[in-house]
Amino acid sequence: MKKILIIGGGVIGLSIAYEISKNNRFKVLLVEKNKNFGLEASSKNSEVIHSGVYYKNNSLKANLCVQGKKMIYGFCKKNKISFKNTQKLFIGNSLQDYKLIKQMYKNAKKNDVNDVKIIAERTLKKIEPNIKAKHALLSKSAGIFDVNDFMRKLFTLCKKNGVKFIYNKKISYGYFENQKIYFSNIKKQKFDYVINAAGVGAIGIAEKSFKNTVFPSDKLVTGLYFKTRENLKIRRIIYPAMKPEKNTERVDITPTINNEYIFGPSVEKKGKINLRNSKLKFAKFLKQINSKLDTKKIKYFKKGIRPKIKTNSKSYTDFYIKKVDKYNWINLFGMESPGLTSCLAIAKYVKRNFLR
Ligand SMILES: Cc1cc2nc3c(=O)[nH]c(=O)nc-3n(C[C@H](O)[C@H](O)[C@H](O)COP(=O)(O)OP(=O)(O)OC[C@H]3O[C@@H](n4cnc5c(N)ncnc54)[C@H](O)[C@@H]3O)c2cc1C
After folding, report:
1. What contacts 285, CB < 8 A, 6 or more positions away?
2. For the chain, which residues make up each domain, given as ranges?
3. C-beta separation of 79 from 120 below 8 A
4. Which of 38, 182, 209, 260 has its CA 20 to 30 A from that of 119?
5. Inter-residue contact 324 to 308 (CB < 8 Å)
6. Is 306 in the pocket of ligand 1 (CB under 6 A)?
7. pLDDT tens profile 97-137
8. Could you tell me the pTM of the whole model?
9. Over 70: is that where the pLDDT of 247 sits?
C-alpha cells in the first residue's frame, strides 16, 4: 500500500485525508504543528459558502468553488452540519457600481453560476428592508456553514478510514532517497507521496526541501473581523459591488450561524494593523447602507492570515496546486478564499490529478 504524508491539518489537509482514505488504497499520515487540527486560517474566516461570481473564468478558483459549494451543501445535509443558504447581495449606488454589477452578472454566467439576478431598488427594499442601495446583484447559492463542526466531522471520518494523526510536530523539510521521501523528525518512516497543505507554512517547507527550485513567494495579508450581537435584521450576506477577478479591499457584512453579524475581513499589510481605522471603515459602510447600529456595539472579534502569493513580484491570484517536477510531492500554495468552499473539490482534484 502506498504511504502518503499530509502536512497540515487545516480544512484542506483534512479534506484530502478524507478523500484519499475512502477506498483503502493509501496509508495516510497527517502531521500538524499545533495541538489540534483547524486552529489557523480554517477557523479564522467568514465561513461563507461562496457561489463563484467574481473569480476569473476557467481558473481553479472558479471551477473548484462552483463544484465545491454543491459538495459542501451536500456534505452538511448528509452529516447534519449547521448551514444556511442565506444568499448574497452585491450592492452599490453609483453608475460605476451598476456597471460593475453588470460585469459580475456576465462573469457569473461564464462561471456557470446561473442563479444570479440583477435587482432594482424596489425589489431590494422588499427583500432586505434594512439595506439602502440603488443597485444590487442577488446570488442565490451563497450561504454560511459551521466550519468547526465541519472539520470535526471530517476528522471523525478520517479516523474511521484509518488516517493516523500526529500533533505538535512541526515539519521542517523532506529529503529523497531511492524514490522515497523522508523527514528528519518522523523517524523510521518513508513516504511515496507528500501533500504539502501547510497553509502559510507551505512555501517555507517546499523551499527547504528543494533548494534549487524556484517557488512563488508569500505576500501575506491579515484580515481583521469585528462583530455585533445586535439584530441588524439583515438576512443575506452583503458585499459592495466589485470588479470581477479583482479581490480589492471591501467591507462585508455576514450573518453567522449563531445569529450574530461579522464585519470584515479588512486588508492589513504586515505590521500595519490598526484596529481603530478598520473599525471606522466598517462603521462608515454601515452608515452608507443606512444602518442605525451604534458603533459602540461593534467589537473586535478575530483575525486571519490570507496566504496570498506572488511569482516574479506579480500577484498570483489563483490557487497554486502543483507537483514538483519528477517528485511525488504536491504543493498547495495561495489557498486563500474560496478555499473553504472549494476544499472537498480540491481534495478530489488532488486525488484525480496527482495520485496513482
Ligand atoms: C480572513 C479570511 C477569510 C476567509 N473567508 C473565507 C470564506 O468566507 N469562504 C471561503 O471559502 N474561504 C475563506 N477563506 C479561505 C479559507 O479560510 C482558506 O482557504 C482555508 O482555511 C485554507 O485551509 P488550509 O488547510 O490550506 O490552511 P490552514 O487552516 O492554515 O491549515 C494549515 C495547517 O498547516 C499547519 N502547519 C503549518 N506549518 C506546518 C509545519 N511546518 N508542520 C506541520 N504543520 C504545519 C498549520 O498549523 C495549519 O493547521 C478565508 C481566509 C481568511 C484568512
Report:
1. 240, 251, 253, 263
2. 2-44+148-217+312-354, 88-140+221-306
3. no
4. 260
5. no
6. yes
7. 999 999 999 999 999 999 999 999 999 999 999 999 999 99
8. 0.97
9. no
Rounded distance between C-alpha atoms, residue 254 and residue 177, angstroms = 49
The torsion of the CA quartet 93, 96, 102, 104, rounded to 10 degrees, works out to -90
Indicate the average pLDDT of the chain: 94
Determine contact, residues 35/170, Cβ cutoff 8 Å. no
Residue-wise burial string across 148-173, b where 16 or more C-beta atoms lie within 10 A, e elsewhere: ebbbbbbbebbeebebebeeeeebee
Tell me, using a 6 A CB cutoff, whether residue 252 lines ligand 1: no
Q: Which CATH superfamily is domain 2-44+148-217+312-354 in?
A: FAD/NAD(P)-binding domain (3.50.50.60)
User: What confidence tens digit (pLDDT) does each residue in 67-76 have?
Assistant: 999 999 999 9
Supply 128's cell numbers: 432586505
- The fold of 88-140+221-306 is D-Amino Acid Oxidase; Chain A, domain 2 (3.30.9)
Q: Which amino acid is at 233?
A: K
**Residues 293 and 253 sit within 8 Å (Cβ to Cβ):** no
CA distances from 133 to 63, 87, 243, 304 (A): 30, 17, 18, 29
- On the question of pLDDT at 85 being above 90, the answer is yes
pLDDT at 142 > cutoff 80: yes
The finding on whether 45 has its CB within 6 A of some atom of ligand 1 is yes
pLDDT (0 to 100) of residue 15: 98
Average pLDDT rounded to a whole number, residues 214-240: 93
Q: State whether the beta carbon of 264 lies less than 6 angstroms from ligand 1.
A: no
